[in-house]
Amino acid sequence: MGNLNLDLIRAEFPALNNDCIYLDNAGGSQVLKRVADRISNYLLTTSVQLGASYSTSQAASEKVLSARRAIAELINAYHDEEVVMGGSTTGLMFLFTQAILPSIRDGDEIIVTDSDHEANIGGWMRLKNAGAIIKIWPVNHESLALELADLDTLLTPRTKWLAMTHASNVLGSVNPVAEVAEQVHAVGAKLCVDAVAYAPHRLVDVQASDADIYVFSFYKVFGPHYAVLWGKRDLLLALPTLNHHFIGPEVLPYKLQPGNVNFELSYGCAGIADYLMDVGTQLGELGNNRQRMQTAFDHFAQHEDALAEKLLSYLRSKKQVHVIGHDHVKNGNRMPTVSFVVANQLSESIVRHMDKFDIGIRFGDFYAKRLIETLGLQSHGGVVRVSIAHYNTDAEIDRLIQGLEEALN
Length: 409
Ligand SMILES: Cc1ncc(COP(=O)(O)O)c(C=O)c1O
Prior knowledge:
By secondary structure, this protein is of the alpha/beta class. It has 14 helices and 13 strands.
């Protein structure tokens, strides 16, 4: 491995063709040209209402449907009807928690973590109004992990849902969702996973995750501002319609897409799967579509690990720096999203210094506010976060390190 052709890869992302070093990928990744081209192609050739008998409408319907099939394959859904699309993860989570609201009974227990992005907490918290009891699965302050032993003490026969993140957008850590699913299912509860910080770095496999609901945003995975919520078919079928009264509960996924999907963005997002398959093929993978995507991600992970370890090794050498999360890359234990604070310096001052070199990183709580608060990091103004994607280069990390060398007191 290690033979990613970064010139070819970077040529797929026209926005990288400037002097800015872009390391805010967990905020939003750059967009593939082929995705933008598909969006433009849809708008300029088939922007009509779906489902009519005339040829352009038939072509538009096929484009939108084929995109749904491509996304289903990208995430390994059992069926493309399980693929619900919408504007954002936050929006989809609010819709979803609205959809389950009628099923909530007084005393039902819902567990959320204190290390998630608020998108996978707030909607669940509101179910308190329907009588739910909300419990918090706290991050362990020593290991900075969500410990399975702590979860054990929270699960009861009354637990109905657990909401957690597959990877933390601040700590970069990966959570063992399949093991959690086993524990959660053992008490008859269901698992909802936010994979926004995971999907840009590993091939999503909703079946292997054994989650019941799995959601992420395409603008973090080389696409536009758009998102997907996958759910097990029987679970989705049992939900009431969120659409017009005449769109019945059996009409999946339309009943959960009030106002319908965005046609051009749906069509555009299929370009992400195309890209991954092409990269896999370039790397010599001759297997099926998912195997080609897997090969692409295997190489991405290896490259990202090397860049992240280079940065972490520099940060470890600075005694005034405290990495928030694992400070080594080991056996796929972390994403290349690296957060840190610096003794006696505000996080903002480090980031402003990097602005001078046109290096795009950022500081703050990244809407994982509860995590920043429980770890007592508000006094620094949150963390400095460097978030790497597969298209970043070794030379970019070198320039970042040079800049940090100046910025760190
Ligand atoms: C882990 C995580 N979950 C959820 C979100 C929210 O996604 P969206 O902006 O699509 O609502 C983000 C955005 O930063 C995120 O990092």
